[in-house]
């Protein structure tokens, strides 16, 4: 069983269901409500456990009731929270997400700038099969990715969003960088995935890829741009799909799967997540993903049938 | 020292400060955040304690972390929460309030319909100097107001909003009904305060009044409509001002003050609240109100100078 460190932000999402999204002021009454764990690193950790791996989460909570709730939900999901750091004088990160009847979303996040600032406690004794980080806690991510290099395991950087301050060191520390389209555009200054990946290749020797939602995933192998189309599924809820993709990809690499197999595994996990409602909490099981892959792929070819 | 039972809803308000209120979907980042106790009965209880009274809160919390937070904050404010009922399978009531730079507000509340449904535990042994209820938990309010009649103390109904199901019994159980303008219009079917109050007088023998924000308060004495103008203050934040008014009014009646004095006291408390930012949490002290009243009133006349 592979063990993966996921590092980055954890958020308590309060999802409120309304007939339609409000505009301007006024009083509105929500018909439905759910409080769920959110944030890239936390969602990825939950996905990894569901996929049969072990997940160790490095994140920061405020020492408050939101933090307690996050801790309880993550523990119930089987995530190892022993590397979570509790900050006494800072509030845990929260988002309110308003969702209308057609799935449109308004998200308002509050994160104290002090929460994801400053180094994590030492990774000198960390032994895992893979590391996955987001870009939102660079002071934590860089040493974790460097430790992955040191012990010779994959260090995957989920570059979904530009960090508050950009540092080439973040890109250079990872062995694998998976951009989101927005992250790549913001970082490379071009809307072209191919040009963006080639620009990033000037900055780092990491393996480079970019996920493009319903358009699948693109990656560089030497001079060549490769593409794996997304599965043509009926998406019900894409919230958290990227986080599931990244968690599954890091797990597969940690298990020793090759790039092609790991990308197929991650795409299948994200596709299955999109077919169920409930954010990152409806992450598929290992058996679900293997059944799905067996239905779609001839073991001899890479492209979906 | 007078002891007042306040009965009704308690809400945890999460206030998020944004540059401007969002319209439609998207991701937004709040600059500031505060979590404060809200809800008519809870705000009134906090106001009563600040004004030198004792407040006993009858409300319902879900047995969850939001409930724990409400309990902790109310206890810290000096409110007696021994009559709060904890429901195991229902979530505590919450509101998210987005506030822009100019004080415009978007409020989204979620309250489980099961939370404020069904009778409160018995009031047979209740001994207080006054009772104040909102309209949002009628199954709790009616027996509390009836108990006030039984023991011969004022029973004030804060009719700010139409209850989910309207019942004449609610109006008839109170000794004093203070409408908000919206509540009076919805209940009486007329935008005229005078006509509305006269229509309500057909339904109940209670003393009847209506608060009109910056226009002061109107009340019936027999056939005559009386009016107390609001204090001409610079309002900074009106959130919770109505709750402070109702708490202060019930406290003053419970202390044995006459109607005129009680209305002046309540108006002064509400005006002082509006001069400070921070919702019901910036309720004024007894000394503040008495100093304010001494500056404004000649003891011999009712109207402000």
What distance separates the N and C termini of chain A?
30 Å
State mean pLDDT of chain A (0 to 100 scale): 91
Number of discrete domains of chain A: 1
Biggest protein-protein contact in the assembly? A-B, 31 and 31 residues
In CATH, what is the homologous superfamily of chain A?
Ribokinase
Main sheet properties of chain A: 8 strands, mixed
Topology, number of strands of chain A: 15
Low-confidence stretches of chain A: none
- Strand residues, percent of chain A: 15-25%
Order of helices and strands of chain A: EEEEHEEHEEEEHEHEHHEEEHHH
**Spatial strand order of the main sheet of chain A:** 5-1-10-11-12-13-14-15
Q: What characteristic shape of chain A results from the CA principal axes? A: globular
Kindly state the percentage of residues in helix of chain A: 25-40%
Mind telling me the C-alpha Rg of chain A?
Answer: 19 Å
Oligomer: homodimer
CATH architecture of chain A: 3-Layer(aba) Sandwich
CATH topology of chain A: UDP-N-acetylmuramoyl-L-alanine:D-glutamate ligase
Number of helices of chain A: 9
Class from secondary-structure proportions of chain A:
alpha/beta
Classified by CATH, the class of chain A is Alpha Beta
Describe the structure.
2 copies of one chain form a homodimer. By secondary structure, chain A is of the alpha/beta class. Chain A has a single domain (3-19, 31-113, 121-296), classed as UDP-N-acetylmuramoyl-L-alanine:D-glutamate ligase (3-Layer(aba) Sandwich), CATH 3.40.1190. Chain A has helices spanning 40-50, 65-76, 138-150, 168-173, 181-188, 193-201, 241-254, 259-274, 286-296; strands at residues 3-7, 11-17, 26-29, 32-38, 54-58, 60-62, 85-87, 94-99, 105-110, 130-133, 155-159, 176-180, 207-211, 217-221, 224-228. In chain A, strands 5-1-10-11-12-13-14-15 form an 8-stranded mixed sheet, sandwiched between helices. Chain A has a 4-stranded mixed sheet with strand order 4-2-8-9. In chain A, strand 6 (60-62), helix 2 and strand 7 form a beta-alpha-beta unit. In chain A, helix 1 (40-50) crosses helix 7, helix 5 packs across helix 6 and helix 8 (259-274) crosses helix 9. The model of chain A has no long low-confidence stretch (mean pLDDT 91). Chains A and B meet through strand 3, helix 2, strand 8 and strand 9 of A and strand 3, helix 2, strand 8 and strand 9 of B. Strand 3 of chain A pairs parallel with strand 9 (105-110) of chain B.
